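Let's do one together. I've listed all components of the complex below, 228 residues spread over two lines.
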Amino acid sequence: DQQVKQNSPSLSVQEGRISILNCDYTNSMFDYFLWYKKYPAEGPTFLISISSIKDKNEDGRFTVFLNKSAKHLSLHIVPSQPGDSAVYFCAASATSNTGKLIFGQGTTLQVKP
Amino acid sequence: NAGVTQTPKFRVLKTGQSMTLLCAQDMNHEYMYWYRQDPGMGLRLIHYSVGEGTTAKGEVPDGYNVSRLKKQNFLLGLESAAPSQTSVYFCASSYAPGRGAYEQYFGPGTRLTVT
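Okay, and this is what the predicted structure of the assembly comes out as:
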């Protein structure tokens, strides 16, 4: 049972345009969501997060939107840069004392110059 | 600060051999985690620890054991390696939820091949 799904394995955009990466979840107990970025041969690095009490969080070129009724979140990158080319994972957590994250399968973003 | 480090970076094992992966963090994090990453499956939690001397099972614990004898170290053991354990293994650490709001810091990974 995949509780966090990223249905697009890959995405290709032109430099300067907007990249939109999507993520769906099924567990209504999830109340915190994160996006991680991963380059080849490196570990994932934290990018941006959002609490379920918000519907938007912005950090520079990165904005995460949360639609709780649709159980959907998205990551917008504007403008996209070639250095953004990486695998992006969304992750979700439910309030607990374990801090466990449930990850999606990942989406490979390619930004073409 | 080195952050989260993992030893070794690469390893090839024969079926039935054993090995231990070492994870160390210097951020004084309470929580530590071991994940495996396989193509098309994201990261799956193997075991985790919420403090020194404690461990718990994650989503895919079978075939693995862990120990957290010191707060800064988290060891992952394979007693009898199987080809299905060929994967990339990531260690992560975090503050207890409420301080760092679930953000986990990852090591660079260990690529393990079992033949």
